[in-house]
Fold:
Amino acid sequence: MLCLIGTIPLKGLPVLSGEIIKNDNNVTIGKDSFPIHRGFQAMITAAAMVCSEMGLPPPVGFTVGDIGLGDGSRKLYSYLKDNLLDIPAKILTFHYLMPDVFWHDQLLWTIEKRSEKPILIADAGYMYVAKMSGFAPSYDLFTPDIGELAFLADEKAPHPFYTRGFILQEEHNVIPLIKRAYEGKNAARILLVKGIKDYICAHGEITGEIDKPNVESLEPIGGTGDTLTGIVSALIHGGYPIEEASILGAKINRLAGQLAQPTPATQVSEIIRNIPTALSMVLKES
Amino acid sequence: MPKFFRRDSSKKQREKKTDRGFLVFQNTSEVIRAEAVLKKEGWNIRVMGPPPELRTGCDLVIEFPVVEQLNILRILEANRIPPTKVVPVDSPLLKPVDLFHTKDFGRYLMVRAANMKLTIDKETLKIVNISGGGCPDVPYLAEELVGRNLNIAPSPRDIGHTLCAYCLHLAYEETKKKCSV
Structure:
């Protein structure tokens, strides 16, 4: 089972869970329907579409409303602490959640009680807290962009807001940042670094680089990192090893973007609709 | 003995501290007032002696969850007890990011501050996209700001709650400066 965990920016939405299905303009978790916006909804929609196209069981979502006060995140953390042991998840993808080391560690100790370790993927706020906790190497995959990679590379920063200025957040500095993140033990086993060129790194070594198609106007579009995390999670669910899933996912995400013929004003929902075509083209080629 | 998860031994010392910050005030009476206000609002904070880097005498600081900085600052400002300084517990000399990265796409301009990017249409001054970030208010802020004119869009500092919102606020202010708004 692929479990996708994160928050939706709605006040008062209780903790809910269920299978994720994409409909025409919405995505549903169990019986509840949500518009496809950037953030958790974009991530789970991309994952659900890939699962559907590959004939896989749909992912299962666990969510709650949180507009940044952390109240919803803490309810979701608490729910997962009580229930995670009984959820037969092979892959857990954590996404937008208020970074909270106490609750992060509670979840980790719950997972520790399982007989088998699931594949752990962290993006967005959960990647921040995974780094802060000191357990980053226990994770299987992080998906940072350049600003977040600089944060992982800065062993002192508790959040990207405090990343020190001498740690240059420039594309030409990606390789030293990757090295520094691994040396400081602040990287997951595998990193998928999103940028003009995407880098796949395993145990500190760069094992893949994807720079085609190069669509510059994708960078400003909110949610393209979310779709990438969803696509890669679904490919891993489909049996691809994490590194290979990362390479394929980066290609699929870029191609879906290119097919949308985007400008910097394009919204992520326009890119998401091209995922099935991009998936088919990339898998055929590979 | 843990089966799956082992924390790096060099990080054990700072266990449970990495997501905390210090609020520094003018004097102890402000610390006491701030403590009362924040505890009344239900925040998980504690008053303690400052680390050597921040010590000025017989002073006190308040330890708080650093990611939720923007929300806490708003409460203190509303109660007229803003701190003089806000710093991470682990490294009290760290300063907020102050470097901006801009990318000109012709009609569109993207400004990045740390992990947050804001893009506007230079002709209409409409905010067309917000990307990056990981705290839960980022998708909320995107919904509130995208599609609105830079002149009338709410400031991320006023409606956001976290350090990601603070980063977005820096990008927003820098964009306004660049567009002479």
Remarks:
- Residues 17-88 of chain B form a domain with the Alpha-Beta Plaits fold (CATH 3.30.70).
